[in-house]
Structure formats: structure tokens, C-alpha cells
């Protein structure tokens, strides 16, 4: 989904992202990825996904639908503009813009996890189990609208652990990560990454983040047209990362099918 915002691109790109990157508070649990909670026995598994599989569908902008073998449905950066065709059980949200949170969520959603504190102050620390998935967050900071100042703990990287996979949605990341952030994240297998290079972190900064995190599979999101996406793909190829475009908005993930070296996979739709 193409979107325009009032934020000046020049101002956003000139802003020093490193100054934003103070570590957030510790997780409710210091146990990184994969945690023991993700290894517990799963509930009944529908035929659509095997126990060792997770379904991933790109809905658009920064929203993905994550589906587990036990039937848990999660929508990331759930908002009032771009939504999955099914009502998720769980919705995660972030603060940066109205395309990353909802003011009128579907009443059928069982759990809403906001990556910031709407009342100000410290962001919540999540570390919870829902069926066969563990969801936790690592808090980061964001720029004030217009870039004038920093909003502390205005964004969360949500980590979803299921089927022995650790999937990180970077949200509206505005700065590189500190060693403490990386420690909190733990092992990351799949990264869902904003690649616009302006409203979020610039391309070089995002490549630094990905190199530090070390995911095997990288799925771009939050890009405004093919030229923006291609700029990120060209930079990925310059690092000798494999790139591919699927003809579908969906893919099935499993630990057994992860590539041996970093691979960028573009799903249909934006």
C-alpha cells in the first residue's frame, strides 16, 4: 500500500539515528529466542500446517498475518487501513503513524499488544504464550513527528516464536540496535523489515541491523513503490545475499527450509 506522510524526507534522512538507540527496559523474561516456553507441547494441529510450520502472509504496508499450526492468527502493526481478510486472535501495534495502530480494532480480536504506552511512560514488556506461540517484545525509540525530538520507547520489535522459529517484526524502527537490544532479541531466524530508507531507518543503518541480527530469511515491508524496494534489493545483492520474488503474498516457513545464508524474499502486495 503506497502511503504519504507529512514528515520531511530530507529531515528524516538527516536526523542522526544513532542518538535514538538507547536500550529499552529488560524483557519480563531474560530468556531469549528460542525460549523453553516455545518448546512445550502444541494443541491440536489443523491439516493446513504441519507442527513444524508457520504460515506468513503479507497483507500490506507493515501488516503481516502469521498463522501457527494450532490455528493462532496474529496480525502485525494492525491498523484501520490495511487489514487481513480474517479477524486475528492477536493484534500487535506500534505508535509511529496511524498506519501502524488502530483506533477501532475489530471487536473479535482476543488480545491487543501495543508496543508503546499510550498514557506515556515506560512501554509494556510482553512475554506471553498464546497456544503454540510465544510473543515478546524488545522496545526501541522513535523520532517525534517531524523529527524534532526523540520519543522514548515508542516502538517495539515483536518476536514470535513458534515451530522452533524466531520471527522478528521490526515495526517502525528508527535507529540501529545496541548490544543490549541484540541480547534481548536472541536468535532471529526470520526478519520482517521496513525498507523505505527514509521514514524508518536509512538503508545502510538497516543493513547494519540485519547483519548484527543474523536472520537467514528477510522479508521486506513498508516500502513505497518498486524503486524504493529495488534500492534495498540492490544493496542486499551487494552483500552477496540471495534475493527472490514470489508470485504469492503467502509462504510457509519451517526451520528445515531456512536457507544456509541470508536470503531476501519479496512477497506480493504492498
Automatic annotation (TrEMBL):
A Pfam family found in this protein is: Lactamase_B_3
Stretch forming the signal peptide? 1-28
Protein name per Swiss-Prot or TrEMBL? MBL fold metallo-hydrolase
Provide the GO MF annotations for this entry: hydrolase activity
Q: Does the keyword Iron apply?
A: no
The cross-references to Gene3D superfamilies, in alphabetical order and at most eight, read: Ribonuclease Z/Hydroxyacylglutathione hydrolase-like
Q: What is the lineage of its organism?
A: Bacteria, Pseudomonadati, Pseudomonadota, Alphaproteobacteria, Hyphomicrobiales
**Keywords in alphabetical order:** Hydrolase, Signal
Amino acid at each position: 500500500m503506497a502511503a504519504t506522510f507529512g514528515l520531511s524526507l530530507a529531515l528524516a534522512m538527516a536526523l542522526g539515528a544513532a542518538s535514538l538507540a538507547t536500550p529499552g527496559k529488560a524483557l519480563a523474561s531474560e530468556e531469549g529466542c528460542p525460549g523453553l516456553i516455545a518448546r512445550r507441547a502444541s494443541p491440536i494441529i489443523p491439516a493446513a500446517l504441519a507442527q513444524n510450520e508457520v504460515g506468513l502472509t503479507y497483507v500490506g504496508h507493515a501488516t503481516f498475518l502469521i498463522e501457527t499450526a494450532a490455528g493462532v492468527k496474529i496480525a502485525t502493526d494492525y491498523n484501520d487501513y490495511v487489514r487481513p481478510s480474517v479477524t486475528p486472535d492477536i493484534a500487535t501495534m506500534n505508535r509511529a503513524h496511524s498506519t501502524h495502530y488502530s483506533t477501532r480494532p475489530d471487536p473479535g480480536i482476543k488480545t491487543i499488544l501495543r508496543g508503546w504506552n499510550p498514557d506515556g511512560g515506560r512501554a509494556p514488556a510482553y512475554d506471553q504464550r498464546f497456544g503454540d506461540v510465544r510473543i515478546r517484545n524488545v522496545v526501541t525509540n522513535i523520532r517525534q513527528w517531524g523529527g524534532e525530538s526523540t520519543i522514548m520507547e515508542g516502538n517495539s520489535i515483536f518476536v514470535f516464536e513458534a515451530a522452533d522459529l524466531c520471527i522478528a517484526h521490526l515495526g517502525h524502527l528508527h535507529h540501529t540496535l545496541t548490544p543490549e537490544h541484540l541480547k534481548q532479541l536472541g536468535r532471529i531466524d526470520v526478519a520482517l523489515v521496513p525498507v523505505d530508507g527514509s521514514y524508518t531507518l536509512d538503508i545502510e543503518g538497516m543493513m547494519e541491523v540485519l547483519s548484527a541480527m543474523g536472520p537467514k530469511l528477510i522479508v521486506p515491508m513498508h516500502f513505497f513503490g518498486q524503486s524504493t524496494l529495488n534500492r534495498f534489493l540492490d544493496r542486499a545483492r551487494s552483500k552477496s545475499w540471495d534475493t527472490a520474488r514470489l508470485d504469492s503474498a503467502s509462504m510457509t516457513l519451517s526451520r528445515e527450509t531456512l536457507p544456509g545464508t541470508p536470503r531476501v524474499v519479496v512477497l506480493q502486495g504492498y
